[in-house]
Automatic annotation (TrEMBL):
Transmembrane feature ranges: 53-74, 116-140, 152-170, 176-195, 230-255, 284-311
The protein's name in its UniProt record: Oligopeptide ABC transporter permease
Family: Belongs to the binding-protein-dependent transport system permease family. OppBC subfamily.
Superkingdom field: Bacteria
Pfam families: BPD_transp_1
InterPro entries assigned to the protein according to its UniProt record, in alphabetical order: BP-dependent_transpt_permease, MetI-like, MetI-like_sf, OppC_permease
Gene3D superfamilies named among the record's database cross-references: MetI-like
Organism: Spiroplasma taiwanense CT-1
Keyword Amino-acid biosynthesis among record annotations: no
Compartments (UniProt record): Cell membrane
Amino acid sequence: MEQKQYSQEEMNSINNSLFTVVGSKLEEAEKISNKPYSYWKSVFARIIKSKTFIISSILLITIILMAFSIGIGAEPVPVDTPGVDIESPSWDHLFGLGKFGEDLWTKMWVGTRTTLIFTLFVASIQILLGILLGAIWGFYSKLDMVFIEITRFLSLIPSLILWLIVIFLFGGSTSLPILIFAISITSWIALAGIIRVQIMIIRNAEYNIASRVLGTRGPKIIRKNIMPKILPIVIQTSTFAIPTAIAIDSLLAYYNFGFVTNTLDQASLGSILNELLLGSDWEVYPHLLIIPVVFVGGISLLFFLVGKVFADSLDPKTHR
């Protein structure tokens, strides 16, 4: 079969009937065909898809609302119930009656409210101090030895002994502000150490060096460049602050140095547990121990699950 030979002019010519001129579209050429990306929208989308986060958040909000609405103005142990025996849970008393004849339903919610207030202050101060001091410690290498010596000195003294020293310096008072101050002296060290290491890893990254060359000040570099990078780790670590604060409440109550000094007029989850463990009534009536343990463990677990899912959602590597 013979092939038709075309001249150079025929090859260079274009048959315009085969084409449709649509014109230039410079605006579309500059657009990225991929979907627009928003960091916080992506975080919110991942949180909404997590059943663990939704269920844990609903349960946690419900507990907080009930704690701050049930038993307002009521005494954990009413004075008009002398000589009442312990009773197991029933329709009249959902959590039963305690060793002093008190309604455990009211007492548990009063104690939960007190513990949540204590936990909020302790965890907030711990997280704020940990982030602030850890960022300064990790970014400014000249202050490294100063922070190392401070943390080494504070770590040499057992935390409980340091708390007791502060309490005795204030005349043996175990009021809430004094206990919060005593605990805050050392509570920031663990979180600050983690943030320090993370900042040291990315402190000399190219974009941070470029920011310093352009004259950007250190605080702005920490706030804009570094903190968003390590935010998931900060949130993940901070989730342990609330369970730790609840454990501290129980520990101080066990040694009779809790901020609840009179268990008949006041209550916290730590004081309730301590009060029960001093006797053996819980062996005959297991609900006396099971209910407080479920409250302490359940609240700690819910805070942890909410924080963990939120921290995982903040990691940009998991968004796509």
